C-alpha cells in the first residue's frame, strides 16, 4: 500500500514502481536468510554480482548520478525515490555509492577517485568524528595536517568511521589553520588505503555490521599525503563535508527511513488483521488501531516533506532553505522513524523481536538515525539558528 501524498513527476513515479518491482522480486526472497544471520548493509559474495547486474541493467544503479558523469540525471529526488524502495527490504539492492562531494574531484583526481566509485569498483569512507570531537567537529577537531613541500603530514585520531576496513580511500578532514578552523582552516584530503602510518581497528556496535562495513577507530601517525590529494579548495573541507551531510546524509535519510516505516506499516496492518486475542483480531481494538494510524500519519508527513525538499534542492536551492530542510528532515526521520518502528514492534508483540521479521533490525537502524549524521540536539541547534538568527544563538 502506498499512500504517497507527494505529486511525483511521471519519470520519478515510473522509477519508483520499477525499483519496487525489482526489490520485491530479487531482494525480498533472500530476506529471511539475511535476518537469521543478522546481516545488513553488505551483500553475501554469492548474491552481490547478480544483484549488482540487475541494478545496472535496469538503470537503477546510476539513475541518481548527474548526466555529465554518465548517469541518469534523476537528481536528489531520484535518489530519494530509489532509497525509499530499496530500504523496504533488509537486503539492500546495490546502487552506485558515489558521494556528492566527489564531484569536486579535479581532472587529475577524477579517474582515480570519482569514476571508479561511480562504477562501484572503489569504496570511500568519510572521516570527520574524533574521540573528543563528535557534535562540534568544527570547533574541537584535533587531527592536524602540516605542509611539507609537495606533501602534507597528517597526525591525529578518528573515531566511529564506517566502512574503514573495506574502503579504498578516506575523505578525511584535518585542521590546516588552527585560527580559521571551520571558516577556511579545515581541509579535506583523499587518503589512500595502505598509506604508511594509518592503523584501523574495529569498534563493535549493536548494528553487528559485517567486518567489511564495520565502524572503526583510526590513528594517523605522520601520514604523508600529496598536496594534489586535496579535495576541493585548501581550507574549505569543512564546508564540503557539510555539503555531503546536508544533501546526501540528511535529506536522503528521510527516504531510507520511509522505506522501513512503510514496510513496517504494511506488515503491521496485515498482522493486526489476522492475529487474534480474546476471540477477535487485534485490529478490532482501538489501542492497536491508533498505533497504526499514528504510523500512517508519520509516514505521510515525512514523505511529503522529504520529496518536497529534494525537489527544491534539484531546482537549484543548494545553499538556502535546503540546508535547513536537510536538518529538519534528518531530525524528523530519526524521531518519527524510531516512533513508527516502536509502534510496529508493539503491534507485533514477541514475534517482532525475532529474526523472522525485519522489525527489530529496522528498529535499530531508526534508533541510530537519531545519533549518526548529527544528533537530534544538533539539528535543533541548526534550526534554532535559522529561526532566531545567529546573533542570539551563536553565543
Ligand atoms: C554506528 C555509527 C557510525 C558512524 N559513522 C561515522 C562515519 O562514517 N564518519 C564520521 O565522521 N562519524 C561517524 N559516526 C559518528 C557520529 O556522527 C557521532 O557519533 C555523532 O555526531 C555524535 O557525536 P558523539 O558520539 O561524539 O556525541 P557527543 O558529541 O559526545 O554528544 C553526546 C550527547 O550530548 C548532546 N550534546 C552535545 N553537545 C550539546 C549541546 N551543545 N547542547 C545540547 N546537547 C548536546 C548530543 O546531542 C548527544 O546527545 C558514527 C557513529 C556511529 C554510532
Structure description:
Strand 2 (144-148) and strand 3 form a beta hairpin. This protein is an alpha+beta fold and 395 residues long. The protein starts with 9 loop residues before the first helix and ends with a helix. The protein has helices at 10-27, 31-36, 48-58, 75-86, 114-119, 137-140, 237-274, 286-314, 321-348, 359-368, 376-388, 390-393, and strands at residues 124-127, 144-148, 151-162, 169-175, 186-192, 198-203, 215-226, 230-231, 276-277, 280-281. It has three domains: 10-103, Acyl-CoA dehydrogenase/oxidase, N-terminal domain (Butyryl-Coa Dehydrogenase, subunit A, domain 1, Orthogonal Bundle); 124-231, Butyryl-CoA Dehydrogenase, subunit A, domain 2, CATH 2.40.110.10; 239-393, Butyryl-CoA Dehydrogenase, subunit A, domain 3 (Up-down Bundle), CATH 1.20.140.10. A four-stranded mixed sheet has the order 1-4-5-8. It has a four-stranded antiparallel sheet with strand order 2-3-7-6, with no helix packed on it. Strands 9-10 form a two-stranded antiparallel ribbon. Helix 1 runs antiparallel to helix 3 (48-58) and helix 8 (286-314) packs antiparallel against helix 9. Bound molecules: flavin-adenine dinucleotide. Flavin-adenine dinucleotide (FAD) binds next to strand 1, strand 3 and helix 11.
Amino acid at each position: 500500500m502506498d499512500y504517497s501524498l507527494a505529486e511525483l513527476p511521471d519519470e520519478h513515479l515510473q522509477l519508483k514502481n520499477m525499483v519496487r518491482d525489482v526489490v520485491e522480486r530479487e531482494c525480498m526472497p533472500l530476506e529471511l536468510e539475511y535476518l537469521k544471520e543478522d546481516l545488513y548493509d553488505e551483500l553475501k559474495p554469492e548474491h552481490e554480482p547478480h544483484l549488482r547486474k540487475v541494478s545496472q541493467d535496469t538503470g537503477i544503479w546510476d539513475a541518481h548520478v548527474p548526466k555529465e558523469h554518465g548517469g541518469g540525471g534523476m537528481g536528489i529526488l531520484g535518489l530519494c525515490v530509489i532509497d525509499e524502495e530499496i530500504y523496504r527490504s533488509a537486503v539492500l539492492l546495490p546502487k552506485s555509492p558515489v558521494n556528492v562531494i566527489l564531484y569536486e574531484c579535479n581532472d587529475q583526481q577524477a579517474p582515480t577517485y570519482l569514476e571508479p566509485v561511480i562504477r562501484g569498483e572503489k569504496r570511500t569512507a568519510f572521516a570527520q568524528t574524533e574521540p573528543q570531537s563528535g557534535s562540534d567537529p568544527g570547533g574541537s577537531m584535533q587531527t592536524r595536517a602540516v605542509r611539507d613541500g609537495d606533501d602534507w603530514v597528517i597526525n591525529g585520531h578518528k573515531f566511529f568511521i564506517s566502512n574503514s576496513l573495506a574502503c579504498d580511500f578516506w575523505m578525511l578532514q584535518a585542521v590546516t589553520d588552527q585560527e580559521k578552523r571551520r571558516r577556511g582552516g579545515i581541509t579535506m584530503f583523499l587518503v589512500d588505503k595502505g598509506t604508511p602510518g594509518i592503523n584501523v581497528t574495529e569498534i563493535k556496535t549493536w548494528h553487528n555490521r559485517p567486518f567489511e562495513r564495520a565502524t572503526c577507530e583510526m590513528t594517523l601517525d605522520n601520514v604523508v599525503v600529496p598536496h594534489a590529494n586535496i579535495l576541493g579548495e585548501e581550507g574549505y573541507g569543512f564546508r564540503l563535508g557539510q555539503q555531503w551531510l546536508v544533501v546526501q546524509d540528511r535529506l536522503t535519510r528521510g527516504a531510507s527511513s520511509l522505506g522501513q516505516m512503510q514496510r513496517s506499516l504494511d506488515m503491521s496492518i496485515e498482522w493486526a488483521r489476522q492475529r487474534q486475542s480474546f476471540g477477535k483480531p487485534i485490529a478490532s481494538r482501538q489501542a492497536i488501531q491508533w498505533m497504526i494510524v499514528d504510523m500512517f500519519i508519520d509516514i505521510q508527513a515525512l514523505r511529503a516533506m522529504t520529496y518536497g525538499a529534494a525537489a527544491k534542492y534539484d531546482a537549484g536551492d543548494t545553499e538556502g532553505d535546503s540546508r535547513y530542510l536537510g536538518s529538519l528532515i534528518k531530525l524528523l526521520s530519526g524521531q518519527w522513524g524510531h516512533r513508527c518502528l516502536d509502534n510496529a514492534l508493539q503491534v507485533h508483540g514477541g514475534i517482532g523481536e525475532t529474526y523472522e521479521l525485519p522489525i527489530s533490525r529496522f528498529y535499530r537502524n531508526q534508533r541510530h538515525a537519531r545519533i549518526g549524521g548529527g544528533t537530534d540536539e544538533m539539528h535543533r541547534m541548526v534550526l534554532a539558528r535559522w529561526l532566531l538568527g545567529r546573533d542570539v544563538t551563536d553565543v
